[in-house]
Amino acid sequence: MAAALDYLSNVDHRTIGLSPQYWAHTPLLIGDLVSLPLINGVDCFVSCTSSSHENDAIHEPPQIIPLSKVVLQGVITAIDRRPNGCILLVLDDGTGSIDVRYWDDSCNQSGAFDFMELQKPAAFAIGDYCEVLGKIKSMTAGAKSFCKWVNPANSLDVRLECVREVHASSVCVMNQDMNSEVVHWFKCLKFTQDVQQHKIKGGKDVLPLLSDSIVSSIFSADYTVESESGNILERNCCQTPQRFKRALLYCHCEATIETLDPIFRYRDALLNKLLDMEDKLQTQSRSEYHSYIEDCIDLLGCNSNSTSLPLLFSFESIYKDEDLSSLAKDIVSSTLVPEANARQLVQNTFRAMANDGLISLFDTDADLYLLLSVERVIEPYLRNSLPGAMPFFIRNISKKRMNRLKRWFESSCDSTMC
């Protein structure tokens, strides 16, 4: 095991989730956050140890800690309230500034309990000092370089100067806490010091603590062995329409639960609507988003003349659809605040479908989403993609789902001799 660990890095995708720090909200200065390198597609904090300097006889590799969530503090310098319910903030802490995207849920709390609204949601203004907890989202990758920090045989794909934003789960005004900024800076410095002193454990450091059976399962061909019920097209576990299974390789059994719509009435109607829109999409000239479609096709490595066009759609077009709007209101009609809950249902369904790998936010400014259908997005990507070239909307698909899609594609190629 020790010999094997020498060739393993903390950014190996099989072990990233073993690191407790990957799931924790890490205190960072904004200047450090925007300068994080993207290593093997993962946002990482890199810190050199005291023995990594040029004048030392022993050269140890830098400490690389993958991160996914952060705690930021700073002053709000701009606010843009988008029509889709999203609030875009610009946060500045003196070391840099970053966009923060926030969806306020205070009016409903996901529908678990339907209390009347007690105060105006998102009560913050320009000039407020706030604490933000959220997920790091890399929007574009910067210049590509290769580093051999871990082992000469294991070079890392490193991208610098990436464009990032934070998708906030909490925005809290801290105007009354006079020393909160000082405490936050001390926490950021403490985290850097802990990384340098090897107090923060990565996935590679956690592996020796696990049993041999667990370790072997982690490295067993990326979970290629799947039960008989793993083939979604042959499942009889739920009432998922066959249309969804064929078009998306999707099953309700693996869907993110929505308390306002536990039997997925709205999701089913929305998916049927999107698949109908996709079927009607024949040429780019018939779509108002033809320039975005061209960009999507280029990212997939396809030729627009030889591939079916992917479907791009806006949140507003779905929210204002009369049939879907009527259905949403009918589903939440028995709640205390049906009008607010109807909009909340639409937002929650979009968020859940993105989490399940069915749709992906394609362009934030235009508020465009991409339907990740098998025929028009997944299969063209798997057929034409180059090693290491992964579009941002493919990266949003979970590894488990992506592995299933790859196995389906390989089996379909074997059966058709493609």
Automatic annotation (TrEMBL):
The keyword Magnesium does not apply. Its main location: nucleus. GO terms for molecular function: DNA binding. It comes from the Eukaryota. InterPro entries: NA-bd_OB-fold (IPR012340), RFA2-like (IPR040260). Keywords: Chromosome, DNA-binding, Nucleus, Telomere. SUPFAM superfamilies: Nucleic acid-binding proteins. GO terms for cellular component: chromosome, telomeric region; nucleus. The keyword Translocase does not apply. It is found in: Chromosome, Telomere; Nucleus. This is CST complex subunit STN1. It comes from Cyclotella atomus.
